[in-house]
Amino acid sequence: MSLIRRTPQVSRIRVSSRVAWLETVLITFLVPLFGYWVHEDDPFFLNHAFPWLLFAPLLPAMRYGFGHGFTSTIILISMITIAWRFELAPIDHFPAGYVLGLLMLTMLVGEFTDMWLRKLGKQVVINKAQRKRLDEFTRNYQLLKVSHDRLENRLAASTNSLREALVNLKIKAKSIEGQSNVLKKVSVDILTMLADYSYVQSANIYQIKDDKLINTMPLGSLGNFSLVDSYNPIIRKSIETGQLVSINNEAYEEDDNPMNKNNLLAAVPVSDVEGHIWGVVAIHEMPFVAFHHENLQLIAVLCGHIGDLISHAEHRYSYGNSESAVFLHFLERTISDRKNFDVETILLVLTLPKKKDLSNEIENMLLGQMRGLDRAWVQKNKEDRTVVFLLMPLTSIIEFEGYRERMSQIFKERVGQHWKSMDIETSFREITGKETINNLMTELCGVTKIDWEKIKHDNSNSA
User: Fold this and answer.
1) Cβ neighbours of 32 (radius 10 Å)
2) What pLDDT score was predicted for residue 121?
3) What is the pTM of this model?
4) What would the pLDDT profile of 443-458 be if each residue is shown by its tens digit?
5) Signed CA dihedral, 395, 401, 402, 408: sign only
6) Which of 173, 312, 317, 343 has its CA 20 to 30 A from that of 325?
7) How far apart are CA 319 and CA 305, in angstroms?
């Protein structure tokens, strides 16, 4: 049964050849008989103002084409000739002009009919083939739509998200802090996380040292085991650029060595925000529907944060390892994420009241309401007032407005007044990706009266 609504077929009614010829002969004889019945002295309408005899050959010619019209005309000419020759009808002279006009007009009409019937027949064949293809396409489309709907429902039911993945990374960081050779210890965890949150089915993770693949044996594997050599163009390009490279990259397309193309879909560097590459994830298999820009972007963001955690665990922060240094490191990561992956982040700065008890209460309230990804840095300014820097990754302006409304309600319930009515100075910045740490912190510390130069000096001494 067809899945599309059929329209009436526009074509002439197909009749058998026998019926067509019988109809032609009947029309040819009926018109002169009708003329004889109406006016027996002029059965061929030769003396009438209009040549009604034309209908006899024109009807078959228009309906069936040149052959039937021409045959009808020959029969009529024969009848006129016999009637004139044997004086069966009062015809004074042979109507040569009438007969010639009848023959020419019928031939012309018949030829046009044949031409249009050929065109119509061709279109009928084409339409039939197109209708068949459309039926097949419609059935395939319906199957694909059902499959897509099921996949969409499955993905919608999944709770995996970038926010959840980064929260789990933050938890993982506590277990590896202060350790060495961290990448090897967490390689299996990294691949498991990529499988859970990015639908990677087969991948290896390799260690990088001095921007080179030091060993073709992976630190960890997921799914089907498959090796890559150190000259693979995707691996090389990923290490050179420090960015995710997939099979549609020019470096891959322009490589002429078929041995280098070993079914590698993408390579993702595990690098920190300062550009130090700890390793590279080679992805061999993942579902076709998951191999798109958004999912690859998620993988790149995860690997970037993993690189930061490894740097933190091995104490490689350029800002040092103090509370302010850790905050500055994550601030730099959010700037990088916004620049490279358009991950929205808000930086909220609050200068709390001078009253110590009220300031401590508000500080505890702010820190207690932090979400899983939020990072806070608490610092005293030159007036001995507490300043709270709250970094809120994956937060848009609209979401930040909701956060402010929620915090206003909490302030009103616990303190008894709106925070705008208290001695709290607030400002926020939406991270654009164009900032530098020094320029941004110089501006914010200037507004909040914090000695930024002293903080930079202390961090450089502890680095």
Assistant:
1) 20
2) 86
3) 0.57
4) 999 999 998 988 888 7
5) positive
6) 343
7) 17
